[in-house]
Amino acid sequence: MKKKILIFSCFILAGSSLMAQVGYQWKTASSGGYSYKYVTNDPTKSRFYTLPNGLTVILSENAKEPSIEYRMAVRAGSNTDPRTSTGLAHYLEHLLFKGTDRFGTLDYAKEKPLLDKIEALYEKYHATTDPVKRKEIYAQIDKTSGEASNYSIANEYDKMMKSIGGQSTNAHTWYEETVYNEDLPSNAVDKFLALQAERFRNPVFRIFHTELEAVYEEKNRGLDNDSWKVSERMNALLYPTHNYGQQTTIGTIEHLKNPSLVEIRKYYNKYYVPNNMAIVLSGDFKSDEMIQKVAKSFAYMKAKPLELYNPAPEKPLTRIQTADINGPSAETVKIGYRGYAENTKESMVLDLISSILSNGKAGLMDINLNKQQKVLSAYASYQQMKDYGTFTLSAQPKQGQTLDQAKQLLLDQIALIRSGNFDESLIKATVANSKLSLLESFDKNNFRVEAVTNEFILNRATKWDKSLSNPDDMAKINKKEVVDFANKFFKDDYVVILKHKGEDKSIQKVEKPAITPVKTNTNETSVFTKNLLAAPTKPIEARFLDYQKDLNFGKTGIADVVTVQNKENSIFKLTYRFDMGAWNSKLLPYAARYLTFLSTDKYTAEEISKQFYNIACNYSFSVRNDVTTIEISGLQENFDQAVSLTEHIFANCKANEEALKEMKSSILKSRENTKLNKSAILSGLMNYAQFGPKNPTNFVLSNEELQQMTSSQLLDILHHINTYKHAVNYYGPETPETFTKHIAKVHVLPQSFTEAAPAQHFTYTDNKDNQVYFANYDMVQSEIRWIRNNGVYNPSETPKVNLFNSYFGGGMGSIVFQTIRESKALAYSTFAFYVTPDKKEKDNAMMAYVGSQADKMNDAVGAMNELLNVLPESDKNFESSKSNSLNALVTSRITKNDIINHYYADQRLGLDHDSRIDEYKGIQPLTFADIKSFHTNNVANKPYNYCIVASDKKVKADDMQKFGKLNTLTLEQIFGY
């Protein structure tokens, strides 16, 4: 599990304007019996505590919804892995979900001798090189693990979190960190802290060999991920000494196959100490009460002397290094430069330069490369780590373009920076857009905890004031400073990775071990869990929407108006919503794409992008299957300018034949690349299975039709888009009355709407017998999806669907996950859902998924089929699933623009009220018998379509024919081109 580290910047809002030059100063205060530090004008109002044992606690109150986001952060990741045991930190992350001597076990006294024996066997296995003897030892490990599983309770941690209302149990490991994350209802704090404190008190590394196999599967997914391989190779060349480049988070195959439980325990004891850990909480609580509870819960932790990874500085790079990577996906070129340590002036300038180059609107690469279609796509980014940062440029070549040509175009943009050939206003606009993009983010608890957790990990929690002032400091940088810096930094000392389409002959196969399924004891409960869940909690009151009260309905001309007033700040979002899309017109998506390259009688396409960027506003034209939207957003003070400019663009855009020619070429190249994307292929197989040869994936213009497409056809759509029926939706600070008058002046409507062409109707296939739809792809894994159409949507079934999904196939505590991953170690990723449609006229479907090593495919299919046909019964799982489903509904708060979106979602389902009301009432009386009946009637013993993407060199046709009639599809059949 890994994450991308984002550069953190901040904002301050006052009235309708974004303020600059606000003072951020550290202050000290005491309250609730504890002292803490805080920074003045901090929008998160974070309190930074250090407990007597050295544990850092960061609290940020936010009472807008009755929930709390949590992170437990440890400054230990792949950097601190021993060189002889790479991947160890990541192993440990997985094992910290397995329980302690008090939970996750039925009888620890009986379990422990077996666990000790397993540990000793792994040490023997680790020291043995003879293949025959290793297999003998592994057979003993497998046998003893089966005996130990008589006493273990798999995923009891996840069941507890599910029972108290947790919605997102997960964790990740990265270079400098391992972070455990949860969210929970605010009424479950006491139970939650008791569980978390116990979790880290004395973790027991049980159910190890099946979990280790899940990590192997995660490694396999990496071997099938070309972008992952590109990043690994680039890091290895940029950091020839530092562990950023010399060892990966997932670890080497050799080390994965030779684990040591002794080394993992040593690692835990060394790094999981309070003076190296932080608890971060944001949400609905009182800080004075919370700090007392946290301090009491984790007082048992004892500080220890600690020495973190402290590498020797990298020597300067002195030459250009080039490496080639082969793989089945599309070609790309990536250029990387080694940057600077966190919170340095140099890193801030590199962050700024990355936005000057690439900001999605008016950066040099956006304008010169993407807008002018000189490459298929290009971007720049700066990734900040603790000791260094990595500055990257990346491009996908267009039709007929070599990787070297694309590389040169990227370097040409660097030359523009070095020569000062850019507008200084880009600096100001970059800062303004950064502030605006964060304006709503700090309302979200997960953003708050991620921001301050990153500060802790990078050892700069004491520099929070500096991080907060980063945008204002960035605004002080002038063009000359950027140019001078660029000339010093961008030298011939970079790394180039050329990703070619071709066979990767370096991939090592991870051999499948012989694993006997372990017992999961799903229906058992430890004494600790019984006591924890028995404690009373104060109920949270559900709050559902009343559309007649929470929305304002009106008219502007012949168009319906739906508004929600923003009483918190000056952000607005205006949407024109059309009930038509690509299924009404194949040309509509191409018209939307064409628009981005067009000029008007007043402005060039480049000037349009710059104008929006300069006023920190956005506009988009989005075409989905049966809905199209034009969205405009930004600060209300720029409303007239942004809306008028958008209206002007649609009314006055003019043909650009050269742009159309390039667009056609880019689309053809994109289509070639899509055929190289295994996820797109699997999605296409699914649509083929559901709808047959004529389906949503291949309902597109053929290549010949694409070449015949004309500017006049596309301009006719763009110029007349407002004549088609649409509603006007607004979330912003204006009152409904003021907005309705306002919009009438800037959005001109016809006397009557033009009728859209009828939408294409796709006929659902009738699943009378099992069918296999196979597509060949050069990969290590096999990916299998089950899909079955199951009749037209029925809203009365939604409560059962919700609860069934939670019990059967959703999350780590589900039946599917526990069986296929925990017990049988057949996959890293697996799930199963009964899918209800987004529109009342559409069909339901049953869908399942397993991504497994190719030589496990038959076993994985058999395991999933067994669950689809026979629903295991677990009272404890059912009760926790029911509690979790109800908690999710009770604690959810739909606010702001999402109220409008939810209204339309329910309207599409034929509902005139908040659908969650029916779900909440419907789930409460349900019993396991109801879910069993639902499974019997809708899932069990039915014919299914098996959609399989795998290498025909690794899976056998004879095996697939055992699942059903084999249909091997060509890419042209799947995609329609």
UniProtKB/TrEMBL annotation:
Organism annotation: Pedobacter cryoconitis
Domain Peptidase M16 C-terminal: 263-431, 756-871
Gene3D superfamilies: Metalloenzyme, LuxS/M16 peptidase-like (3.30.830.10)
Record keywords: Hydrolase, Metal-binding, Metalloprotease, Protease, Signal, Zinc
Name used for this protein in its record: Putative Zn-dependent peptidase
Tagged with keyword Repeat: no
Signal peptide: 1-20
TM stretches of this protein: none
